[in-house]
Amino acid sequence: MNTAQLFADDDEFLEWTRDHPEAYVINFRANRSADYIVLHRASCRTIAVSTQASGSLTAGAYRKVGSPDPKVFDSWIPKNIAGGQCVSDECIICKPRK
Asked: Which residue, 1, 19, 66, 94, is the most exposed by fewest CB within 10 angstroms?
């Protein structure tokens, strides 16, 4: 069964993205605002590279949730992001659904 995994640690997130490059990640603001929920591939260079301070990927202004199946987010988002119903955008760099 595919589930969504919320990451609270950069090292854990980066290891997961290396182990699951074809999986999906939603990136959203720490305040869980429904207006910014962006879908990426786990291998996307805009989210899976740590060049900043520890915690900047998962404990700073943004949070990450990963899953092998993007359909999992259809149920995760409404339960965890107030007013959120679905992904608000897709990354133009990694084009996750193409």
From this structure: 1
The residue with tokens 């259809």 is 74
Strands annotated E in the chain: 5-7, 24-29, 37-41, 62-67, 89-90
pLDDT in tens, the chain (98 residues): 579 999 989 999 999 999 999 999 999 999 999 999 999 999 999 998 766 656 678 988 899 999 999 999 999 999 999 999 999 999 999 999 88
The rounded distance, in Å, linking the Cα atoms of 83 and 57 is: 23
- Neighbour tally for 3: CB within 10 Å: 11
Tell me the H-state helices in 1-98.
10-19, 72-80
Global pTM reads 0.92
Structure tokens at 39: 């879908």
Residue 59: count of CB within 10 angstroms of its CB: 16
In Å, how far are 31, 35, 58, 98 from 6, measured between CA atoms?
A: 14, 19, 9, 24
